[in-house]
Amino acid sequence: MPPKKQAALEATRALLSGGKATNDTKTPPLDASTSGAQSIASETKIELTVEAKAKKVKSLNKKLKQIEELKAKVKKEGNSALNEDQTAKLESEASIRAEIAKLQ
Predict the structure, then answer these.
(1) SS3 letters for the chain?
(2) Which residue from 11, 48, 84, 89 has the least number of CB within 10 angstroms?
(3) 44 with 32: CB under 8 angstroms?
């Protein structure tokens, strides 16, 4: 992958993950005055959007699996076996399922 495209890809990933974009490479930051920068940035954004959605869906499915495990624990041991965080996770099941449906 060309260095400019790699830098743009890393910066976009950092922004999508909520982090701060850094430019640790010696490649200058891309801006609108850079030749072809806009097309590279838009291609990268499209790639990452699909990648980010897949990552988010995977994360949400993991949470659903944990919720199913908590439901089994409640069935086996009762509600008193759960702490506050676990109870909150059980209550978030509907919103997690709605978010997965929205992303797919």
Answers:
(1) CCHHHHHHHHHHHHHHCCCCCCCCCCCCCCCCCCCCHHHHHHHHHHHHHHHHHHHHHHHHHHHHHHHHHHHHHHHHHCHHHCCHHHHHHHHCHHHHHHHHHHHC
(2) 84
(3) no
In this predicted structure, the answer to whether residue 24 has a pLDDT above a threshold of 60 is no
Going by C-alpha positions, the residue among 95, 86, 16 that lies closest to residue 60 is 95
How far are the Cα atoms of 69, 78, 90 from residue 100, in angstroms, in the given order?
19, 28, 16
Alpha carbons within 13 A on the beta-carbon side of 60: 19
Please say whether the beta carbons of 40 and 8 come within 8 A.
yes
Q: Where are the domains of the chain?
A: 3-103
